[in-house]
Amino acid sequence: MFVALEPRRLYRQVAEQIRVLIDTGELKPGSRLPPERELAERFSVSRPTVREALIVLEVEGRIQIRMGSGVYISSAPKQPAGVLPNDEGGGPLEILQARCLIESSIAEEAARLVTPDGIARIDLLLERMEQSLDDGPVALACDRDFHTAIADIIGNSALKHFTGLIYDTRMSPYFTKLASYFEGPHTWKLALEEHRVIRDAIAAGDPAAAREAMRRHLTLAQKRFSESFEEEQTRED
User: Which part of the chain is the HTH gntR-type domain (predicted)?
Assistant: First the structure.
């Protein structure tokens, strides 16, 4: 019933294969999908990839993820298309990896070109973020502004625009639902602490330290994301 997939945009392919099985009636309303561990083995993908696919289907209304019970095919009407970005820009893990590579270089260059005004702008954002750890949307906005403010230090409008653009790939029903599984006051507090390390390295005019601090921050973000899947799967399997 399930077919192993090629390593390209895997979570989309997993979602599409399950979607077809639902539409053809092979997976019937009310039936329970195999545990995520088993699905990962059948598709020959990672468990985070399976979870990404399942969240796509959950937002579409095709399945219900019941914590402590499992994943069930929904009998509710399907939601309109448009859950995934049209540009097929990749999943959140791919996006975080891309950001890690690009924004590490941006932080490095910002440390070479840092100005008092640039640091003052970052300090205001960090203060606002600290006051908003319990308010997800505000913390998210502060997070975005922090990363674009670093690019702004360089004085290259294309870099600032690109940094905001790649960040904004998460502004969709799919990514919003996905974030609800792993973002909260605790993770925003960790991000804030990592932001401060980046800020200090840039303020010190230390390109190598700034690059490493940004790399570490976005690597840890990937880790938090992946670990959130493992926690949910442990409860469900």
Answer: 8-76
In 3D, which of 97, 90, 64 has the Cα closest to residue 12? 90
0.85 exceeded by pTM: no
Tell me the two tokens of residue 39.
Answer: 């699905």
Taking CA atoms, 212 is separated from 18, 128, 197, in Å, by 40, 24, 10
Tell me the C-alpha distance between 217 and 98, whole Å: 13
3-state secondary structure of 136: helix
Domains belonging to the chain, first-starting first, are 10-73 (1.10.10.10), 92-236 (1.20.120.530)
Q: Is residue 71 within a helix (H) or strand (E), and if so which, with residue range? A: strand 70-73
Please check the confidence at residue 62 and state whether its pLDDT lies above 60: yes
For residues 110 and 154, the answer to whether their CB atoms sit within 8 Å is yes
Cα–Cα distance, 25 to 101 (Å, whole number): 43
